[in-house]
Specification:
With 169 residues, the protein is mostly helical. The protein has five helices and no strands. The longest helix has 51 residues. The protein is elongated, with a radius of gyration of 23 Å.
Amino acid sequence: MEIKELFRQNIPRAILIIFLFVLYTLGGTVNEYLFKYALNDITAGNLTGYVQWQAIELALALLVALLLPVATQTMTRQVQNYIHQIRKDLTHHYYAGGDEKVSKMQNELTANLKLLDNDYATPWIDILSAVLQIVFGVALLISMNWLLLFYSKSSVINDFKQFYFEIQA
């Protein structure tokens, strides 16, 4: 199983998957960025402005919350189509060979394909989402103030050190 073959299975759907995950991550990042304006309004004593920003954030959060299941379902369909293609190729190979054991063929068609789905294809969803979140998060921090990027980096490093020492204890 190769990632490029997975996406070649249905190229328009693959583009849609990437677009949905980018839109999901971008929407979450914009939602976090808008909180800055709501916070500015509430600290300035502008309750109406604060409520308006919160309403915009709520609407955006609901829209973004709907994007993730759609993107995941679309990716699942892509993976299932690819696995069906692999299953078809395996079945053709076994029937053309004729001398394979049924148990070996059954193992290849069920357990190994489930392993491909759970241990290979599904983590790509997490990897894609995490990379996009990191990229958009860094861009957001730089757009606010580039020093925030260094502060968050040192904060993350300190959190990892603390976590590491807690495990060692």
